[in-house]
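Subject: Sanity check before I submit

Could someone independently write out the structure tokens for this chain? I want to compare against mine line by line before I put it in a report. The sequence has 106 residues.
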Amino acid sequence: MSLTTSEDVLDFINGFYQHDRGCVIHDTFTNGYCYYFAIILRERFGGRILYAPIPGHFVTEINQMAFDVTGEVTGQYELIEHYDEKSVIEGCILKKQEEEWWKFKQ
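---
Independent answer below. Compare away.
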């Protein structure tokens, strides 16, 4: 079994854009569906889903590197591991403001 490299992950992400007309893929997964893209990456490559409370964004950490639909985003967000389902719905999907809904789960 070979280890996943960042190139493997980036090739997979780039595959989403091969037939993307008008930035539909990018716009979808950067405007409310980032959690679902994080799930796709986790299922394909393993790793864990992390959350950035501001701006309400999910990424997948694979081999200590963070990825989302735009590619490798390590260091671009303050990421935490703990979140609850209500936070996912209100922050990532409904895009409510952070001060209205975020509760850090200890």
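---
OP: Matches mine. For the report I'm noting this point. The chain has one domain: 6-101.
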